[in-house]
């Protein structure tokens, strides 16, 4: 049974549906990502999972519990990243960690957690005096200190420098290795690709795709791009007839085609048949970025610059 179940969730603000029939299930021990453009309804969805918002319709369960009706029980199994307004400016880092540990029956030892998140030097500092990245790291520590069964991380590493970001990814991988289920909202494709077992892409309040990161990339319309400068002109009709062709661009004698592996093989066969040499040949696989842009219907841009 999934540890998080969201079924046909609906939520409107002022008559405008921002979550419009979202369903997904997260298995125990999974890292499940939610990706989507700004305003897609991701935070609203996870806040319904956390019991911070009351759904208009639909069903949400965390470890079999209703996050609204069983809020206190859910709070014992679920750790969530706080919003800045939820912590008093005068609280020190140590006090915040001790306070949040005290809320839970079997908390983690907060000292190694603070050390791991680079907060050991800041234990005596007041929350209001921390930098944005230090606050963010404290929020991650507070989400984990209760030793939760499920942790919800909304924009986990936003505002962190690259070293802190990588350290946080390793921490989350270790947390998962300990059996914790992670629900992660992110805008960083590298983060989603590295951490997530499965990803739901939400656009305009609805799940438009749910798959593994590799599965999402495979669905991308122009999953493979081949670019080259032919030694002699290529016939338009023959290019247009290539299998699985998604787009063709010609610029300054260079041709860029997107399609599948089949398109690439057919181009190579076509070139060989006409004894045309492909100068500066480049073949690129699509990334999660490409899949995201395709799935959320934004204009995909594969420029010459990215290929050379
Ligand atoms: N309390 C509220 N009252 C009115 N509208 C709201 C409220 N909270 C969110 N919204 C609106 O609902 C929509 C979805 O917001 P939500 O925060 O869920 O999106 P998101 O996908 O998390 O976006 P982002 O990536 O920008 O954080 C947005 O248009 C937002 O302005």
Automatic annotation (TrEMBL):
Keyword Ligase: no
Organism: Streptomyces brasiliensis
Protein name: ABC-type xenobiotic transporter
PANTHER family linked to this entry: ABC TRANSPORTER ATP-BINDING PROTEIN
Broadest EC class assigned to this enzyme: translocase
CDD domains found in the cross-reference section: ABC_DR_subfamily_A (cd03230)
Organism superkingdom: Bacteria
This enzyme's EC code(s): 7.6.2.2
SUPFAM superfamilies per the UniProt record, alphabetical: P-loop containing nucleoside triphosphate hydrolases (SSF52540)
Pfam families cross-referenced by the UniProt entry: ABC_tran
GO CC terms: plasma membrane
Cited InterPro entries: AAA+_ATPase, ABC_transporter-like_ATP-bd, ABC_transporter-like_CS, ABC_transporter_ATP-binding, P-loop_NTPase
Protein family: Belongs to the ABC transporter superfamily. Drug exporter-1 (DrugE1) (TC 3.A.1.105) family.
Protein location: Cell membrane
Main location, first listed in the record: membrane
Keyword Translocase: yes
Keywords for the protein's UniProt record, in alphabetical order: Antibiotic resistance, ATP-binding, Cell membrane, Membrane, Nucleotide-binding, Translocase, Transport
GO molecular function: ABC-type xenobiotic transporter activity; ATP binding; ATP hydrolysis activity
Membrane topology: Peripheral membrane protein
Residue ranges of domain ABC transporter in the record: 4-229
GO biological process, one term: response to antibiotic
């Amino acid at each position: 049974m999934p540890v998080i179940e969201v079924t046909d969730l609906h939520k409107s603000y002022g008559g405008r549906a921002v979550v419009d029939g979202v369903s997904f299930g997260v298995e125990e021990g999974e890292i499940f990502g939610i990706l989507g453009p700004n305003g897609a309804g991701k935070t609203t969805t996870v806040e319904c999972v956390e019991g911070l918002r009351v759904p208009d319709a639909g069903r949400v369960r965390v470890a079999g519990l209703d996050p609204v009706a069983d809020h206190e029980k859910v709070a014992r199994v679920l750790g969530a990243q706080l919003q800045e307004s939820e912590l008093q400016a005068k609280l020190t880092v140590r006090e915040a960690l001790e306070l949040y540990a005290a809320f839970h029956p079997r908390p983690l030892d907060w000292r190694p957690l603070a050390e791991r998140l680079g907060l050991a030097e800041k234990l005596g500092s007041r929350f209001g005096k921390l930098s944005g990245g230090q606050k963010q790291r404290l929020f991650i520590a507070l989400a984990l200190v209760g030793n939760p069964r499920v942790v919800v991380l909304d924009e986990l590493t936003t505002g962190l420098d690259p070293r802190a970001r990588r350290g946080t990814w390793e921490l989350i991988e270790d947390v998962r290795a300990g059996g914790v289920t992670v629900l992660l909202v992110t805008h960083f494709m590298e983060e989603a690709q590295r951490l997530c077992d499965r990803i739901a892409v939400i656009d305009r309040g609805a799940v438009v795709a749910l798959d593994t990161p590799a599965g999402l990339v495979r669905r991308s319309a122009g999953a493979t791009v081949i670019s080259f400068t032919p030694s002699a002109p290529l016939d338009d009709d023959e290019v247009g007839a290539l299998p699985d062709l998604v787009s063709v661009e010609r610029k300054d004698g260079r041709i860029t085609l997107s399609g599948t592996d089949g398109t690439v093989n057919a181009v190579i066969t076509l070139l060989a048949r006409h004894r045309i040499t492909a100068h500066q040949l480049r073949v690129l696989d699509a990334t999660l970025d490409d899949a995201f842009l395709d799935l959320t219907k934004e204009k995909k841009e594969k420029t010459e610059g990215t290929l050379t």
